[in-house]
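User: For a benchmark we're assembling, each entry needs the component sequences followed by a predicted structure for the full assembly. Here are entry 17's components. Please fill in the structure.
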Amino acid sequence: MSAGVVTGGWNFVIAAYSITVAVLAIYGVTLITRLRAERLRASENGESR
Amino acid sequence: MPRRYPYTIATALFAIGIYFGLAVTVADQYLHADISLGLPVAARTLISVFSGLIAAVIWLTADDLKSSRRAHALILAGIVLMLIGTWFGLFVAPPEQFMGNVQRIMYVHVPTAWNGLLALTVAFACAIFYLFNGGWKWDARMEASIEVGVLLAFLLCCQGAIWAKPTWGVWWDWDPRLTTTAVLLFAFLGILALRKFVDDPVKRAVWSSVATIIAYVDVPIVYFSVRWWNSLHQLQSNPNTVSKPFWIPLRANAFGILFVMVGFIMLRARIAALRLETEMAPPPILSNEIGEQLGEAV
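Assistant: Structure for entry 17:
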């Protein structure tokens, strides 16, 4: 930082965008896998009844 | 009314929101064309915000929690908008006068904050609807909205910490805005934990609805904390305080995260609804006996 101006900082920008993409992508994947598992469980329960 | 009508209306509202929020700005800055239909900036912003909000509410309430196709389409549209927003945010928008390139974090941080608070507002509305109506769909939607809201609040704290280090010199400060956001995150995380520990679906739904209404009190406190107390965190921005070149990445990401958030809530609500169906179904032996009795009766 010099004279009240933040210089550089691209590493922080890349970190923030990477965390955003990673968190959203991982959550999206867990949603799809959990939905598949729950559908499978529901269909197994339906058959057993 | 045919089932697709609410989706058609919501899609039209999303299109209106994107037109006034994004397309008019792109046309103005890159094509030097005025397609604002003569509306001033404040009116365009209001139309954009409210049409987006109403569309999200229609999309969520019209969802029958059966098909995932529409949720996938919304998430895909959200990803496309976020790619556009990220491209403009990283490579097209100029660095800010004082914060330099670090300010580019705002293009994801601010939309995450807006949509995180919106997800928790949806949870609050679902809690009230459940307590008054008692429909299980509201319980499933509430669980989904809380989980997505917690995810966005967590992301918000991470992005904020990464921005705070180069600008404030610290990763975290017990500033009113940051503290109330942390309280919000842990309060709703506690509600998710509560839902895990209670087996009875009725008790779980009622207790978590009441807890959601109580925890939601913190949402307006988070929003107004920068005005009520002396905070390091800057005040809310508006089109008059944000330079025009910054509008496109901010708005594209805001709509992108909104679409992804609504799609995530729809998918997560489907998971909660399936789990509820399984929990509330009669045990196999009992259901076979009922089936046999019904067969005999027929």
